[in-house]
Amino acid sequence: MTDRLDLAIIAGDGIGPEVIGEAVQVLEAALPDGVELVTTEYPFGAGHYLETGEVLDDSSLEALAKHDAILLGAVGGDPADERLKGGIIERGLLLKLRFAFDHFVNLRPSAIVPGVSSPLADPGEVDFIVVREGTEGPYVGNGGVVRAGTPAEIANELSVNTAFGVERVVRDAFTRAAARPRKHLTLVHKKNVLVNAGVLWQRVVDEVATEFPEVTTDYLHVDAATIFFVTDPARFDVIVTDNLFGDILTDLAAAIAGGIGLAASGNINPTGAYPSMFEPVHGSAPDIAGQAKADPTAAVLSVALLLEHVGHPEAAARVVAAVREDLAARGTTPRSTGEVGAAIRERL
Length: 348
Ligand SMILES: NC(=O)c1ccc[n+]([C@@H]2O[C@H](COP(=O)([O-])OP(=O)(O)OC[C@H]3O[C@@H](n4cnc5c(N)ncnc54)[C@H](O)[C@@H]3O)[C@@H](O)[C@H]2O)c1
Ligand SMILES: CC(C)[C@H](C(=O)O)[C@@H](O)C(=O)O
Ligand SMILES: [Mg+2]
Known about the structure:
By secondary structure, this protein is α/β, with parallel strands linked by helices. The chain folds into 2 domains: 1-104 and 260-348, 3-Layer(aba) Sandwich (Isopropylmalate Dehydrogenase); 118-257, Isopropylmalate Dehydrogenase (3-Layer(aba) Sandwich), CATH 3.40.718. Helices cover 40% and strands 20% of the residues. It has 11 helices and 12 strands. The chain starts with a strand and ends with a helix. 3-isopropylmalic acid is lined by residues 76, 90, 94-95, 247, 281, 283. Homodimer. Keywords: Amino-acid biosynthesis, Branched-chain amino acid biosynthesis, Cytoplasm, Leucine biosynthesis, Magnesium, Manganese, Metal-binding, NAD, Oxidoreductase. Pfam families: Iso_dh. Residues 6-344 form the Isopropylmalate dehydrogenase-like domain.
């Protein structure tokens, strides 16, 4: 156990600072006695870019690399703002961090717990994790446009899948599956169409499976997986999938498990070579920003993932328990961001 947690905070844009304010207070309340929390706030985000022209330069990356972990709210501005076009913030900040710090495991758990109202009538016992590859796929920025703006325009976005990248995330997913009661892993891909990448993913799953005889496996095409997310989500235990499929599936997972305001994630570098980064799955939600309507639970549960990662599993479990108690007691009366945060802290 470290006796000091040196945390970088990027609160970001929109509801980011609102939910991070609550989450950091929960972190302070949850840390074991004797562990000192040292925080450094970084101003990055769309707002900072529009004010200063700075997105994230290499010296900032170097500074961020020195922390034990990063807690991020959400970054991104109004999608209609011309000055932010081209994914300046999404690619230049968020993905730059995930790539520079080699966050190859994008961990996104989902569970339907008492008190949560799922849009599904009879979801069964839903408790699964998506292990989304975080550094490859169509996200790498390998593409381009020819004859831009003409009727003959061609726009390419190449999906990069390396044996090295696929194997390390698949191995991580098997390790997580082996540690769970049901020990089941589902590969989600589109190997009937994306045949080159699909063959690689399936072969790697089959090979790594021989090292984990206790883990059962199956395969679903991503389109069929979306059906089962709605008709039978209880069938899933651990899902391993590529960067883009994982992005889409985890918003769907959030929707069935009580809403995007509850969905947490960790961008993890399991080697420890760089700090891992924890953030809600949701974005900056410009439609509700500044109205204290955002649910901070996803940010609070991201703090639980962070605590687990930095070696405080008991504190993490306390945060999860406090959230679950709060969810169980939640009625239908809307509460403000601050009220939810305070209620969770009271239960800690
Ligand atoms: N990790 C990130 O920083 C991240 C993730 C996703 C999107 N984004 C960016 O955020 C901006 C907005 O994206 P979007 O609208 O597609 O997705 P979004 O997740 O911000 O919002 C989608 C919907 O969910 C609601 N919502 C989101 N979080 C909520 C919360 N905590 N409580 C209650 N409701 C919540 C919003 O009000 C909105 O109706 C874009 O610039 C996008 O690129 C950033
Ligand atoms: C904002 C965007 C780059 C990001 C992603 O696609 O990974 C977001 O949607 C997420 O799920 O974290
Ligand atoms: Mg997403």
